[in-house]
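A favour between colleagues. Tell me how you read the following sequence-structure pair.

===
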Amino acid sequence: MQRRSRRTVEDILDAAVRVLRRDGALRFTTTRVAEVAGVSVGSLYQYFPNKHAIVSAVHLREVEAAWTRANRTLDRDELTGRERVRRITRLFFLAEARDVELLGVAPPDLAVFLDGQPGNEPLLTEIAERLTHFIAAQGCGVSAASGAAQMMAVIEGVGRSLSRMPMPDSERERWAFATADMVCDQLGFP
């Protein structure tokens, strides 16, 4: 994508966030997004076929940024496996809360926008593969693929549930560490 096109896409995504926060999900339209982004509706449709694709792209941008940080944590061999899981869980819980703050929409409500949208599958596959290798390297005696699936399900489920609850980051961190320890205990991490 050319530089100008990338800038237009970023402007549209930034405008989408502002519209969601200001007007809410029920009043979110491509017309409002185009107006706030300073582009024509026709230009917006060159990049996104509908409002669902826009919200999906905003969400994917946030998930990719969090995954980049999680990857750096997984690469930190000086940390124990448990400490890496604790840090990743904390990161995910805070990212989910940020999604709600950023978009003004809780994850269950995001499903209306995200269902059927392409884009997340390659990233989810990458995450599952990386976690599978990580768990295998811990020598826990569990199936690495099954362990990765369990880890993803528990962390995602608890993190999304908590994202709807207003709480200080310190409380969210306590939940993250307790959830991570539960997962690590279940998988047999030292």
Observations:
- The chain has two domains: 1-48, 57-187.
- The CA atoms of residues 124 and 152 lie 10 Å apart.
- Residues 1-48 form a domain with the Arc Repressor Mutant, subunit A fold (CATH 1.10.10.60).
- The chain has nine helices and no strands.
